[in-house]
Every structure is written in structure tokens, then in C-alpha cells.
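Annotated sample (chain length 152).
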Amino acid sequence: MRALVQRVTSAGVEVSGEILGRIGRGLLVYVGVAPDDTTDYAHRLAEKVAGLRIFEDEAGKMNLSVQDVGGDVLAVPNFTLMADARRGRRPSFATSAAGPVAQPLYEEFVVALVSLGCRAARGSFGAHMHVTSVADGPVNLVVDFPPAADLP
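Output written by the structure step:
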């Protein structure tokens, strides 16, 4: 599984003009699922995201998590996040899980966030969404679970 995590002051998602989720200070998290991902990966990725120390403490150091600051999480399913664009100009989506595999794992990720005490809003799986965000920093991280092998 892969998460693109953005620290935000606010974010929202809508489908066909209907607001599905809106958050204040917290994290906008795009979630991608690979064909061989598991529910364990979903839980462990949620633990990692919820515990990321990317919010500033009183000294201005990134020492606090979204849990520590009482922030929200907007989790948006994102098929294209798993794309392979290393060759040519058209990305390959062969490394993205099909809907019947990906949707339950995305949902499990959100449930795991909530079980960790995070207030979570969500996007709509398989829908064309309009996502808005106000980046804070900007601070953006890519988190893979299981972790990707070290790059040379």
C-alpha cells in the first residue's frame, strides 16, 4: 500500500457537487493499493500515518503527530498513486489493485485510523472526485507499506 500524506490547514472532497468530507487542520492522505496488499498492511499503514511526527511543537520542531494535535484525516482512494511511470510517457497501472481487492483494503485503512482515535473523513471509491486542500508548509510524504527497498 502507498500513502501520499499532505499536512493541511483544511481539505475537502466532493462528488457531483456533493461534499463527502471536509476537514480542518490535519492530514490529506491519498491511498493506493497494490494487488498483493493485505489487511495487515492497511492496519500498519494507518498506524504509520497516524503516528507521523510532522506537526510542529512549541519549539517549532516537527515532533507531533496528527493524534497529538487533535487533527483530522481525509482519506481519499487513489488508483493512480500506484502507477509506474518509469518507462515512456504513458503510466502503467498494472501495479494497482482492481476494485474488488482495493476497496475493502482502503475501507480497512480508514477503519484502522478511526480505531487509533483519528477523526477520519473519506472520499468515494471509484468516483470522479474534486479534492481541494490548503497545504501547510508544504509538508508532503510518500509512505509505503511494506517499506520500499532502499534506493541506490
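Annotation: The two ends are 22 Å apart (CA to CA).
Annotation: The CA atoms of residues 46 and 104 lie 14 Å apart.
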